[in-house]
Amino acid sequence: EIVLTQSPGTLSLSPGERATLSCRASQSVRSSNLAWYQQKPGQAPRLLIYGASSRATGIPDRFSGTGSGTNFALTISRLEPEDFAVYYCQQYGSSPLTFGGGTKVEIK
Amino acid sequence: QVQLVQSGAEVKKPGASVKVSCKASGYTFTSYYLHWVRQAPGQGLEWMGIINVSGGSTNYAQKFEDRVTMTRDTSTNIVYMELSRLRSDDTAVYYCARDQGGISIFVLWGQGTTVTVSS
User: Fold this and answer.
1) Does residue A37 contact residue A92 with C-beta atoms inside 8 Å?
2) Which residues of B touch A4 (CB under 8 A)?
3) How far is A41 from chain B (nearest CA, A)?
4) Going residue by residue through chain B (119 aa), what tens digit of pLDDT does each one get?
5) Residues near A49 by Cβ (< 8 Å), separated by ≥ 6?
6) How far apart are CA A93 and CA B58, in angstroms?
């Protein structure tokens, strides 16, 4: 099973600042089959990025994903008020599917 | 519209079973796989397994293999997830989620079903 470790656990930033979230895999993620989700309280997760760097439909271009192998990152170029939430990475290159533990982006 | 609608909240005693339903609408039911993902209070997301809605085959996470059963009814467009021998740490929100054409990424989610296990 591929273990995904997200860091930091919490990121305290102000609106307009840049956020960089990390996701490290315990072994190489096949074909960069890595996705990022945003989750707000009481809601289901929302897909942001798939294939490590492709934005899902309707996702603003301030969200970008990079990485391959075992190291991946999600960058939010300029935080908007609605971006404060918890973010999860997920690998879908091998079974079982696994998620990272999440990074909370909170208002400083 | 395209949606997944899950059954309502459940309260169960330890040792009991729970069966959660997920009704699909707005798309061809048998063209997509469905997954179940759970989230304990204040915790992260945990994948439980997948069902091939067309053929009915399943693949469960090892952690749940001996306690979970996923089935589907193609006449009503409903997928079911049954979890047996419930424990307190099974208290969670359970989501069904549809894959994207055979790729296990999730754009379409159900609203979630809260299962509380308490004596």
Assistant:
1) no
2) none
3) 10
4) 999 999 999 999 999 999 999 999 999 999 999 999 999 999 999 999 999 999 999 999 999 999 999 999 999 999 999 999 999 999 999 999 999 988 999 999 999 999 999 99
5) A34, A35, A36, A55, A56, A59, A63, A64, A65, A74
6) 18
How many angstroms away from the CA of B24 is the closest CA of chain A? 16
B72 interface with A at CB cutoff 8 Å:
no
CB A12 within 8 A of CB A108: yes
Return the pLDDT at B104: 94
Q: Which residue has the tokens 């989610």?
A: B109
Sequence-distant (6+) residues with CB within 8 A of B45 are: A37, A45, A88, A90, A99, A102, B37, B38, B39
**Inter-residue contact B112 to B41 (CB < 8 Å):** no
Residue recorded with tokens 């915790």: B43
Burial tier of A50 (Cβ tally within 10 Å: 0-12, 13-18, 19+): buried
Q: How far apart are the first and last CA of chain A?
A: 35
